[in-house]
C-alpha cells in the first residue's frame, strides 16, 4: 500500500507537470512559432512523456507483482492441501472419497479468494484516490469558520493600508512592501503610478484579498478588512485586473457572471459605461453571441470593455482598475473614461495606469517606487514638483502640449 501510494504521488506530480506544460504550449503556440522554438519545446515535452512512461511501467510492474503474489499464495495453498490430504489417505486417516471432497471444496473456495485479493487491490486504489480528493475537501477555507464576519460595510468607506509588509510566497526573501502606508479616500478616485515592478498590481491583489500580508493591517473606515466577510467584500468591489478571464460563453454571461436573475437596468448601465453597444449591435445574436475559446474571437480592446462592463454591472461601492483601458483606441478610451467619471461619483476608486490620459484628472495620484510611496498629490502638484511623476510622464506631456 505504501509503495503504491508513493508511486501514485510521483505519477500525480509528473501528470500535473505534463498538463501545465501542455496548457502553456497551447497558449503560447504563436510565440513558439515566432521564435522557432518548436524543436526545443518538443524535447522538453518528450522528456516529460519519458518520465510519465517510467512511472506507468513502475505501477504496472507493482500490479503484476501483486497479482503474482496472489497467484503464488493460491497455488501454494492448493499444493499444501493436496499434499496433506494425500498423506492422510496414505496414513489411512481419511478415505479416498473424503480426499476428493476436500479437493472439490478447495477448488470451489479458490475462486472467491482470488476475487477477494482483486477486491483488496481495487480497495487500495480507491483509498488512495479518496485520500487525494479529501486533500481538497480538507484544505483550510479562506475564512476561519469559527469567527464571525461582518456583512455590512462601515459608514466611512476610506481604505487605509497601515504598515503593510508583504512578500510573495516562493519568490525568495525579498519584501515587496516594507511597512507601506497608503490611503484611498472615500468617494474619490486615486491613481497609482510608478515604474514597472514597483508593486502597483500587488496593492490591488492585497485589496482583493488574494494574498495575506505578513504584518500590518488594511482598514475600511474603522474596521479591519480581515473582519469583513470575504465574499461580501468581493461582491462590494468591481475589479478589472490584467488576469481577468473571458469564459467560453455568451457576451451576456461574461458580463453577468453569478446572477441567475439578470437586472436589465444594471446591464444597460454596464453596456453604456463600457461603450459596448456598437459591438453588441453588430453581432447577429447580440448579447447572446458566444465568445471565448469555443466562440467568436475578440480583440484585446473588446475584452477590456467586457471586463469594465462586468465590474460596472456589480454596482460596486469600490472600483479597482489595473490598466483597464490600456488596449483601447483613443476615442473609445476618452468616451469610457468620461462615462466612468460619472459612474464613479460617490464610489471609492483605485486606478493603476501608465497612461497620462487615464490619470490626469483623478483626485489624487500616488507615485510608487520599489514598493514605497515617493510622491503624492494632484497632477498639477506633481508636475510642478518636477520629481518622479514628472519623469514618468514627461514624454506623454510633450505629446499633449
Ligand atoms: N505572482 C507573483 N509571484 C512572485 N512575485 C511576483 C508575483 N507577481 C509580481 N511579483 C513581483 O512583485 C513585484 C511587484 O510586481 P507588480 O506586478 O505588483 O508590479 P507593477 O508595478 O504592477 O508592475 P507593472 O507595471 O509591470 O504591471 C515585482 O518585482 C514582481 O516580480
Automatic annotation (TrEMBL):
It is a multi-pass membrane protein. InterPro entries: AAA+_ATPase, ABC1_TM_dom, ABC1_TM_sf, ABC_transporter-like_ATP-bd, ABC_transporter-like_CS, P-loop_NTPase, Type_1_exporter. Residues 159-395 form the ABC transporter domain. This is Uncharacterized protein. PANTHER family: ATP-BINDING CASSETTE SUB-FAMILY B, ATP-BINDING CASSETTE SUB-FAMILY B MEMBER 6. It comes from the Bacteria. Residues 1-125 form the ABC transmembrane type-1 domain.
Amino acid at each position: 500500500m505504501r509503495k503504491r501510494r508513493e508511486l501514485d504521488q510521483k505519477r500525480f506530480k509528473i501528470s500535473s507537470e505534463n498538463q501545465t506544460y501542455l496548457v502553456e504550449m497551447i497558449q503560447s503556440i504563436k510565440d513558439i512559432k515566432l521564435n522557432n522554438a518548436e524543436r526545443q519545446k518538443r524535447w522538453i515535452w518528450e522528456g516529460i512523456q519519458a518520465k510519465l512512461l517510467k512511472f506507468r511501467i513502475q505501477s504496472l510492474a507493482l500490479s503484476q507483482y501483486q497479482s503474482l503474489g496472489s497467484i503464488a499464495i493460491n497455488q501454494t495453498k492448493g499444493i499444501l492441501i493436496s499434499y496433506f490430504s494425500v498423506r492422510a489417505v496414505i496414513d489411512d486417516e481419511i478415505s479416498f472419497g473424503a480426499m476428493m471432497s476436500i479437493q472439490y471444496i478447495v477448488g470451489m473456495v479458490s475462486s472467491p479468494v482470488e476475487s477477494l485479493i482483486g477486491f483488496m487491490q481495487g480497495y487500495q486504489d480507491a483509498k488512495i484516490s479518496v485520500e487525494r480528493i479529501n486533500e481538497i475537501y480538507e484544505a483550510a477555507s479562506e475564512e476561519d469558520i469559527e469567527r464571525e464576519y461582518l456583512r455590512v460595510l462601515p459608514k466611512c468607506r476610506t481604505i487605509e493600508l497601515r504598515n503593510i509588509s508583504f512578500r510573495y510566497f516562493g519568490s525568495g526573501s525579498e519584501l515587496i512592501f516594507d511597512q507601506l502606508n497608503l490611503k484611498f479616500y472615500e468617494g474619490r478616485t486615486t491613481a497609482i503610478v510608478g515604474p514597472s515592478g514597483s508593486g502597483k498590481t500587488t496593492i490591488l491583489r492585497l485589496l482583493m484579498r488574494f494574498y495575506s500580508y505578513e504584518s500590518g493591517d488594511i482598514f475600511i473606515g474603522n474596521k479591519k478588512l480581515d473582519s469583513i466577510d470575504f465574499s461580501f467584500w468581493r461582491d462590494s468591489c468591481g475589479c478589472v485586473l490584467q488576469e481577468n478571464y473571458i469564459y467560453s460563453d455568451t457576451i451576456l454571461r461574461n458580463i453577468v457572471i453569478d446572477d441567475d436573475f439578470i437586472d436589465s437596468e444594471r446591464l444597460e448601465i454596464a453596456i453604456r459605461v463600457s461603450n459596448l453597444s456598437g459591438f453588441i449591435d453588430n453581432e447577429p445574436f447580440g448579447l447572446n453571441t458566444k465568445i471565448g475559446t469555443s466562440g467568436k474571437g475578440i480583440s484585446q480592446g473588446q475584452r477590456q470593455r467586457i471586463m469594465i462592463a462586468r465590474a460596472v454591472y456589480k454596482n460596486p461601492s469600490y472600483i479597482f482598475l489595473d490598466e483597464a483601458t490600456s488596449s483601447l483606441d483613443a476615442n473609445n478610451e476618452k468616451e469610457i473614461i468620461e462615462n466612468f467619471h460619472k459612474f464613479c461619483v460617490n464610489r471609492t476608486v483605485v486606478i493603476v495606469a501608465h497612461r497620462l490620459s487615464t490619470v490626469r484628472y483623478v483626485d489624487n495620484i500616488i507615485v510608487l517606487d520599489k514598493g514605497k510611496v515617493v510622491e503624492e498629490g494632484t497632477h498639477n502638484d506633481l508636475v510642478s514638483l518636477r520629481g518622479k511623476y514628472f519623469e514618468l510622464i514627461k514624454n506623454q506631456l510633450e505629446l499633449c502640449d
